[in-house]
Amino acid sequence: MILPYKIGYRMPAEWEPHSATQLHWPSNNQTWPNERLANVQRVYLDIIEVLHRYESIILLVDLSVNPEEVREKLDQRKISQKNIHIYHVSINDVWARDCGPIFIKKMEYGERIFAITDWKYNAWGEKYPPFDSDNALPEWFAKTFRIPTFKPDMVLEGGSIETNGQGLFLTTESVLLNSNRNPGMTKQEIENRLRDFLGAEKVIWLKEGLAGDDTDGHVDDLSRFLNTDTIVTMVSQNKSDVNYEVLQKNYQILKKSTNQYGEPLRIETLPMPETRIEETTIDGSEFVPASYANFYIANGVVLLPVFNSRHDEEALQLLRTYFQDRDVIGINCTDLVWGQGGIHCITQQLYGLDVRKDSVHPER
């Protein structure tokens, strides 16, 4: 087997130019029962209304849904569909970050060459079957857009890793070392697989994730790169907060960490919004993983989840300080996070795709 790292491939940072963003139209009534499905669809329209002005969107619509109904909702919002490419395919749920293709790139003669890494997806330890259609999506992208593919033969979700694009990665022990993912693999074997297929030269292992995070603790709710040597991490100022100790442990790990060259990292912090909800989620949790770390960096814009919290403005200002070349726009995600994910969880950046209207077939 040819290993991508050996021939110069590496996973790019999210802030590198995309050709499109992958989104899945919400249609799963088990994730979004009753009126919650309509509520989360409105959040999607809010996101699409902003995002389509900055980059193309590949919007996957499940076979159980008439794509014309989605187009009508876009028209009602007066959202131009010039940059929105709808594909009618089988999907299980909305979590594009975790089941979508993870791209890698290399430079050849001054040009960027992209490939897809097709990891296994098992819905966070087979918690939410069926997940076969979502597991098949990287291969669908590869065939549809004629992108070369590498198959690492390991379970990995996109939300469980974070990179600065130069070989430094963040992840959590609670996910990658969980027996419900790859029970036969050691920590070193997992690191080796991340190196061989994504170019991970150093992995910083955080501990656990947020209460109410049914992924077992994805890093994109905890800590994210703002640039190659700066990380923002979530903290709680309330010692009685359910997440206080977990976030403190992760913060202390980051403060002591260095990059792959042994150089110190700059660590910024943001306070947690309220995560306890009045009712319970579909799996019975009284907490949701509401987090400002779940932002999405797109071409020319950063989409930040906000929650009608007193900390919303602080989060907006921090991201505006670090992303001065992009607009930073808050999207109210109170209804979205009830399904136990945020903006980063439902998006996946795509590279190297020709998404011109005359080169795609919107309903295959």
Helices and strands, in order, run as: EHEHEHEEHHHEEEHHEEEHEEEHEHHE
- Cα separation of the termini: 32 Å
Looking at the structure, the CATH topology is L-arginine/glycine Amidinotransferase, Chain A
CATH class assignment: Alpha Beta
What is the CATH architecture assignment?
5-stranded Propeller
- Report the radius of gyration as a whole number of Å: 19 Å
**Overall residue-averaged pLDDT value:** 95
Largest sheet: 4 strands, mixed
CATH superfamily: L-arginine/glycine Amidinotransferase, Chain A
Give the proportion of residues in helices.
25-40%
Q: What's the number of domains? A: 1
Low-confidence stretches: 358-364
Total of helices: 12
Overall shape: it is: globular
Q: Care to count the β-strands?
A: 16
Strand order of the largest sheet: 3-2-1-16
How would you describe what is shown here?
The chain is α/β, with parallel strands linked by helices and 364 residues long. The chain has helices at 35-51, 67-76, 96-99, 123-126, 132-135, 137-145, 173-176, 187-198, 244-256, 312-322, 334-337, 343-346; strands spanning 20-24, 57-61, 84-88, 102-108, 111-117, 149-150, 162-163, 168-172, 202-206, 223-227, 230-235, 266-271, 296-298, 301-306, 327-332, 348-350. The radius of gyration is 19 Å and the shape is globular. The model is unreliable at 358-364 (pLDDT under 50).
